[in-house]
Amino acid sequence: MVSNPERRAALVDAGVEVLAREGARGLTFRAVDAEAGVPVGTASNYFTGRADLLRQIDTRLHVRLAPDPAVVAELMTRPKDRSLVTAFMYDLMARATRDRTGYLALMELRLEATRRPELLASYTKSVRGDLEEAMEFHRTAGLPGGDESVAVLYLAMLGLLLEHLTLPGVLEGVLPGVGVPDGLVERIVATVLPEEVQAQGQGPDQAQGQGQGQGQGQEGRI
After folding, report:
1. CA distance 156 to 179
2. Which of the residues 50, 61, 118, 136 has an alpha carbon 20 to 30 A from that of 145?
3. pTM (2 decimals)?
């Protein structure tokens, strides 16, 4: 395989664009070459096959959709209460919205994983790792709620992101007076972390600064 990190990264990003736009069936080396604006046959020099390209797209999206460490550090200076959890969910929604192509590519990876056992194993491992990392971050940071709260937040935000980025009309007006997506983000957090659960968490001065710089931070990807 050719070793040129910058060219490889450009090809992988081109693969993300093709995957999001055309789906897995349209993800051919020729399509990636065309998207990247390189001579036909270039991608075949960098990837052993489509499975290799899909795995590298997964790795690349892990970076593209990860929280900004500076944003995480700033958020962690705030009181460790429900409003901070809401701020992390806002950041998650903002990152997915800014890189809608990347998020749609993630959805295509999920679908393709159901057809490819080798991709299913690696993709399951990476997504499960993100979820476990989010739980560890939540615990270490002293945020209200526990692992169950993080798991339910994960499931609820996954559904919100799916609808908002694919069929946004489904959510418009579903709860009168609640904005989409921000108002729904607030409702999700308030439902998962009601006041009595928040009161069980650490006080605003506890765990100050804990969790900064840890891995992907809160909900790296979904």
Report:
1. 16
2. 61
3. 0.86
